[in-house]
Amino acid sequence: METLIKLTNGINVPSEIWIGLKKTGKGTWSWSVGEKTRSAGYSNWAASPASSHHCGGMGGDGKWFGGLCNTIRPFVCHGGRDEWQWSDQSNSSFRQWAPGQPDSDSCTLIRISSKNWWDRSCAVKYPLYCYEDVKIKHVKIVRVEMKSDPSLDLNDEAVSNAILQELKLKFQGLDLQWRVQDGKIFQEKEKKKINEEEAIVK
Fold first, then answer.
1. What's the rounded Cα separation, in Å, for the pair 181 and 11?
2. Which of 25, 33, 113, 179 could disulfide-link 99, Cβ–Cβ 3.0 to 4.6 Å?
């Protein structure tokens, strides 16, 4: 707290500033990073905040006060590390704690009905939702028409693999693969039948 007072005196700001405190429940205040004031073992209220005050600030004497969150004041940020982390160690400033939470446990669950977070003992078993960063692939089907020696079997695995490798060299950067239909990669093209009525008689 002495550091905050020295900081505000050093940059010549008004006597009242926001310090990142927010009301999260009845008589419960948390820092903007999600940590409760009581978890740090320190609070410094000049007086009990009014019930309509949901943001906390600090006066020139270092005492905390409650105020309306839409009041414009200078602010200082708390640079400490949040004690709550995602299991994959990724960073997130989003918090959705229920009033009075977190309490004293080490794991978090979400109550579907209220969409709020609650801390619980990690020993208690609950269904688990996992997050995965899914990369969307755009798939395009391209029809290839080829002419070959009638004695060459295009559906032979060695032949089809050789053709695919040639295509990959030509179209680098694309993930190419054959589409198999009826157990075959290549289908013989049907010969067009000439309609006798449309035949040109010379």
1. 74
2. 25
- Cα(199)–Cα(85) distance, integer angstroms: 78
Q: What does the pLDDT read at residue 102?
A: 80
Q: List the structure tokens of 199.
A: 């035949």
Name residue, tokens 């070959």. 148
Report the alpha-carbon distance of residue 65 to residue 18 in Å, rounded. 9
Measure Cα distances from 124 to 66, 104, 109, 129 in Å. Answer: 37, 14, 10, 15
The distance from CA 61 to its chain's CA centroid, rounded to whole angstroms, is 41
Q: What CA dihedral angle connects 13, 19, 22 and 26, to 10 degrees? A: -100
pTM: 0.36
Query: Which residue reads 């073992």 in tokens?
Result: 41
Residue 4 pLDDT greater than 60, yes or no: no
| Amino acid 150: pLDDT | 75
In a 3-state reduction of DSSP, which class is residue 161? helix
How would you class 159 by CB atoms within 10 Å of its CB: exposed for 0-12, middle for 13-18, buried for 19 or more? Answer: middle
